């Protein structure tokens, strides 16, 4: 069998990218199993006696477990609500003509063009005046403003790719608009909805800036707690890395579960 | 008895007028076929009957009821789409059951109706499959099955067979004809295909640019086309047209001058002779299948360009002084390109059209 130079270069390139993107991740996971001495060793030690001390320490720290629960609550609701609110909007944008449609579309897209830091102060003041500081609700609301545009954007595109004949066949079959949305568009749009849900969840889970600004103690999320370890004289790298690993793990598992839906070509066979 | 009636139906998209006033009616149980060139508005008209497209002007009646502004589902029509439009995430059974479920029919009745449709269309072994696991012909059958389960008053078909290969197409054509006979339902069918139109239709509606050119049975359209457009559109290969000038008129005959004719003249017996005057320009229409090779009394003297053998018959392409002429003849005449070709025709088969293209 002949292997072309192109293929070899391709493989080398891919390997480089994989190593480049996975290395920090590996470093973090490895460090989370090291003692502080091993972590600070120079040159770095590759072979070490793994220890679960860091994990024992963070799991006994109620601050960390509480923060993970906060993160779960906030990310789950922010994702759920953005899908629940975003998919009907996407349906309307994909299939109906109405006044101001292009303006609305632009508004959804341009939402993402503002730098988050610009709005941090106004939102902080707003939240304070409404007594929402340090609540799950304020984070969920803020994340919705980021997630809904993502959902609308991705799902509108997905819905547009569903042949309009299907909707018309369903109308002749006696289905009303809501039934068409629920029985035709939601199942056929599932790959796009799953992708947008992953994005929403990952964003909400990882978000640091607003979580830092808007929470104090009760609603603190995992990334905020991980950074809060950095305040002391000596940096507890093992704890930070273990917290980091715990933060990354759920999203990775979540992404793996839903990615199967992403690749299924559901619209196949609808039309010739 | 009129079952479906279109009364001066019009459709505009903004300033663009797509259907410019179509009227016709169909009796109960009739099979009506819309034909016309691409873009003439066949689908638009059909979709207006279905209620999928708003009617800009005019009135539409189904079974005596004004449904011009009625919801699609309440018109009790069903439609088979060119793309089949099967729900890809549902099994064949669910595809066919969908309309019944929407109508909140009891489960037992749904099962019975779907089973009945599956039996008629031989879909029983496929009921659990998803559309993507079906062949084109099977998908088409499911689409038809979905349209018959609800026992609609009116069936609409938009080029249902155009995605199938030739053999399957003729097979499905026969099945649709059978279905029409066994259900006795009124059907409106859109097609490009001559053979489908001629074989399926009780009546054909020929459309051009949003207007009706002629309505009639297949044989009426073939025998007495109202104008050159219909004459050229119905029949395959296309009718030959020759331009000629009237040089003399009699009470029931015309003498036409044209370079293509033997001796430069053609005498035509016609009851409509009185409608033409000396000096008028007429179009003479000759169907390829009516022309005979090497006749006793030749009408056209031409040169053979080339011949295509279709096995049992041969298509000859000939050229003379004027327009190229196509001949469809049985057997395989022993002729070479460049040979002289004399053609004759039974005078009863000569069509005449005036300068505006209308039948004389
Ligand atoms: N939404 C629309 N806006 C503007 N023009 C349209 C629209 N839909 C259809 N048309 C125009 O209406 C005309 C008729 O379209 P229609 O689909 O009815 O043609 P058709 O006879 O079915 O053609 P074909 O044989 O190719 O299917 C076309 O010229 C088309 O461009
Ligand atoms: Mg069409």
Automatic annotation (TrEMBL), chain A:
Q: How does it sit in the membrane?
A: Multi-pass membrane protein
Where in or outside the cell it occurs: the entry states: Cell membrane
In terms of one coarse class, where is the protein primarily found?
A: membrane
Give the CDD domains listed for this entry.
TM_PBP2 (cd06261)
Q: Where is the ABC transmembrane type-1 domain?
A: 68-258
What residues form the membrane-spanning segments?
12-33, 67-92, 104-125, 137-156, 184-205, 240-258
InterPro entries, from UniProt? Answer: BP-dep_ABC_trans_perm (IPR050901), MetI-like (IPR000515), MetI-like_sf (IPR035906)
Q: Which UniProt keywords apply?
A: Cell membrane, Membrane, Transmembrane, Transmembrane helix, Transport
Q: Which PROSITE patterns match?
A: ABC_TM1 (PS50928)
Q: Which domain of life is it from?
A: Bacteria
Under the heading Pfam families, the entry gives:
BPD_transp_1
Family under the similarity heading:
Belongs to the binding-protein-dependent transport system permease family.
Annotated protein name in UniProt:
Carbohydrate ABC transporter permease
Biological source species: Ancylobacter radicis
- List the lineage, top down: Bacteria, Pseudomonadati, Pseudomonadota, Alphaproteobacteria, Hyphomicrobiales
Automatic annotation (TrEMBL), chain B:
Q: Does the keyword Hydrolase apply?
A: no
Q: CDD domains given for it?
A: ABC_MalK_N
A Pfam match is ABC_tran
Boundaries of each ABC transporter domain copy? Answer: 4-234
Keyword Protein biosynthesis annotated: no
- Give the Gene Ontology MF terms in alphabetical order: ATP binding
- Return the InterPro entries for the record: AAA+_ATPase (IPR003593), ABC_transporter-like_ATP-bd (IPR003439), ABC_transporter-like_CS (IPR017871), ABC_transpr_MalK-like (IPR015855), ABC_transpr_MalK/UgpC-like (IPR047641), Mo/tungstate-bd_C_term_dom (IPR008995), OB_MalK-like (IPR040582), P-loop_NTPase (IPR027417)
Which keywords accompany this UniProt record? ATP-binding, Cell inner membrane, Cell membrane, Membrane, Nucleotide-binding, Transport
Q: Which spans of this chain does the record mark as coiled coil?
A: none
Q: Which PANTHER family match?
A: MALTODEXTRIN IMPORT ATP-BINDING PROTEIN MSMX, MALTOSE_MALTODEXTRIN IMPORT ATP-BINDING PROTEIN MALK
Can you name this protein? Answer: Sn-glycerol-3-phosphate ABC transporter ATP-binding protein UgpC
Gene name of this polypeptide: ugpC
């Amino acid at each position: 069998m002949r292997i072309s130079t192109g293929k070899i270069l391709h493989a080398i390139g891919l390997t480089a990218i994989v190593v480049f993107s996975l290395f920090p991740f590996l470093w973090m996971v490895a460090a989370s199993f090291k003692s502080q001495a091993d972590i600070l060793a120079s040159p770095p030690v590759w072979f070490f006696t793994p220890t679960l001390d860091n994990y024992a320490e963070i799991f006994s720290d109620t601050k960390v477990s509480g923060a993970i629960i906060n993160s779960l609550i906030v990310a789950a609701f922010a994702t759920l609500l953005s899908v629940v609110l975003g998919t009907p909007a996407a349906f309307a944008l994909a299939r109906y003509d109405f006044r101001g449609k292009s303006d609305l579309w632009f508004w959804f897209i341009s939402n993402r063009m503002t730098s988050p830091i610009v709005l941090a102060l106004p939102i902080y003041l707003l939240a304070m005046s409404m007594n929402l500081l340090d609540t799950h609700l304020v984070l969920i609301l803020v994340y919705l403003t980021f997630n809904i545009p993502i959902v609308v954007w991705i799902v509108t595109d997905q819905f547009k790719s569903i042949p309009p004949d299907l909707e018309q066949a369903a109308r002749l079959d006696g289905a009303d608009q809501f039934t068409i949305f629920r029985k035709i568009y939601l199942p056929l749009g599932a790959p796009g909805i799953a992708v947008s849900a992953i994005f929403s969840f990952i964003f909400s889970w990882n978000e640091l800036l607003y979580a830092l600004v808007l929470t104090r103690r009760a609603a603190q999320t995992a990334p905020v707690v991980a950074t809060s370890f950095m305040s002391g004289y000596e940096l507890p790298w093992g704890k930070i890395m273990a917290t980091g690993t715990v933060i990354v793990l759920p999203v990775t598992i979540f992404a793996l579960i839903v990615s199967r839906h992403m690749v299924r070509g559901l619209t196949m066979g609808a039309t010739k | 008895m009129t079952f479906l009636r279109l009364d001066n139906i019009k459709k505009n998209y903004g300033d663009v007028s797509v259907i410019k006033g179509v009227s016709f009616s169909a009796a109960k149980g009739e099979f009506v076929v819309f034909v016309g060139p691409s873009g003439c508005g066949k689908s638009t008209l059909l979709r207006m009957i279905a209620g999928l497209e708003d009617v800009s002007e005019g009135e539409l009646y189904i079974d005596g009821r004004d449904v011009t502004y009625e919801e699609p589902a309440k018109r009790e029509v069903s439609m088979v789409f060119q793309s089949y439009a099967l729900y890809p995430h549902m099994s064949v059974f669910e595809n066919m059951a969908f309309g019944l479920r929407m109508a909140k029919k009891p489960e037992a009745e749904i099962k019975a109706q779907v089973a009945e449709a599956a039996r008629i269309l031989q879909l029983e072994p496929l009921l659990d499959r998803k559309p993507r696991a079906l062949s084109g012909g099977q998908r088409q059958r499911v689409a038809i099955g979905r349209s018959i389960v609800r026992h609609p008053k009116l069936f609409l078909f938009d080029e249902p067979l155009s995605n199938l290969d030739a053999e399957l197409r003729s097979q499905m054509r026969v099945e649709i004809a059978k279905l029409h006979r066994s259900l006795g339902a009124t059907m409106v069918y859109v097609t490009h295909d001559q053979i489908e139109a001629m074989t399926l239709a009780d009546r054909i509606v020929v459309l051009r640019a949003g207007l009706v050119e002629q309505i009639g049975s297949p044989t009426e359209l073939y025998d007495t086309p109202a104008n050159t457009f219909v004459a050229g559109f119905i029949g395959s290969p296309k009718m030959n047209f020759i331009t000629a000038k009237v040089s003399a008129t009699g009470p029931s005959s015309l003498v036409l001058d044209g370079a293509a004719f033997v001796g430069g003249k053609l005498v035509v017996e016609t009851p409509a002779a009185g409608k033409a005057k000396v000096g008028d320009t007429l179009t003479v229409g000759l169907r390829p299948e009516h022309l005979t090779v090497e006749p006793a009394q030749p009408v056209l003297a031409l040169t053979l360009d080339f011949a295509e053998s279709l096995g049992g018959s041969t298509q000859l392409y000939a050229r003379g002084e004027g327009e190229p002429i196509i001949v469809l003849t049985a057997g395989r005449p022993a002729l070479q390109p460049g040979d002289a070709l004399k053609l004759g025709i039974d005078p009863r088969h000569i069509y005449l059209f005036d300068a505006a293209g209308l039948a004389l």
